[in-house]
Design brief:
Layout lengths: L1 H18 L7 E2 L1 E3 L4 E3 L7 H13 L16 H6 L5 E2 L1 H6 L4 E6 L2 H15 L7 H6 L8 H6 L1 H7 L1 H7 L2 H5 L8 E4 L3 H9 L24 H10 L1 H6 L7 H6 L1
Parallel strand pairs: 3-5, 5-6
Antiparallel strand pairs: 1-4, 2-3
Length: about 250
């Protein structure tokens, strides 16, 4: 009991340090010591599949909450956030040259649309905040343009929306220099092949499919510009991979 209490206090301390913005706890990482791999997870960038893949590499199986050893954890995300080395800094990552450090990046506007489709429409998460949204005159099931144009308010009301729509730059510490491998979202098969070198039989979980489908074409010029403006730091950081020019030229 004492050991568990100490672990819980340390965990709360780590989360508090990150919430306060202390640089040494800024970056969430998944570190595989034996394989010398470090992964920087970004929500809506296939992170569930990758985390389960890394669990297979480490333990030979996907994370299963029904296993006694996993009882303290809600899911694979909870497990990796509660590991003792779950948070790091850009300085520490830059000095970890003995590791291969990797991540997946995604077009910011398309990532936001994915957030809307999955969290707002399919999971109906904003209904948990319906009373707070009513006070702001906002719908808990908004159409995509209403959601984008009022993104700041929806993020302020819902922790889940804030997390899943948070700019990628904030997860990276606005720095990609410490990464050895960067895989664009549409090239996840290349990441799969890379990780199979550590466990040849590795299988990624099927990515979320089905449900409602949305595209950039459904955004009005006003909401598209609003999304591009919101993610301007992402487009600056990810300029080697994604550009907002195509969207701005449409407006």
């Amino acid at each position: 009991m004492i050991t568990r209490t100490i672990k819980e206090m340390k965990l709360r301390g780590r989360f508090a340090a990150r919430k306060l913005g202390l640089s040494g706890w800024q970056i969430h990482q998944i570190c595989l010591q034996d394989e010398k791999l470090i992964y920087i997870p970004i929500p809506k960038n296939a992170c569930t599949s990758i985390k389960q893949g890394l669990h297979q590499i480490e333990f030979g199986c996907i994370f299963d909450t029904n296993q006694p050893v996993n009882k303290p954890y809600v899911d694979v995300h909870d497990y990796y956030k509660k590991r003792s080395d779950a948070f790091s800094s850009t300085d520490a990552l830059e000095s970890s040259t003995e590791f291969i450090r990797f991540a997946i990046v995604r077009d910011p506007v398309k990532r936001l649309i994915s957030c809307y489709r999955n969290r707002v429409i399919d999971l109906e998460e904003l209904k948990k905040n319906e009373s707070s949204l009513q006070k702001l005159g906002l719908d808990a099931m908004p159409d995509i343009n209403t959601f984008v144009l009022n993104l700041k308010e929806y993020r302020r009301v819902s922790k889940s929306i804030e997390h899943h729509s948070r700019p990628q730059a904030s997860f990276f510490g606005n720095n990609l220099n410490y990464l050895d491998k960067i895989f664009p979202f549409d090239e996840i098969d290349q990441l799969h092949q890379f990780l199979k070198t550590y466990r040849p039989g590795l299988k990624f979980l099927k990515r979320k499919s089905g449900g409602t489908s949305f595209s950039v074409e459904e955004l009005t010029d006003e909401s598209l510009k609003s999304a591009v403006d919101f993610y301007h730091m992402d487009y600056q950081l990810l300029w080697d991979y994604y550009s907002s020019e195509e969207y701005l030229n449409r407006i």
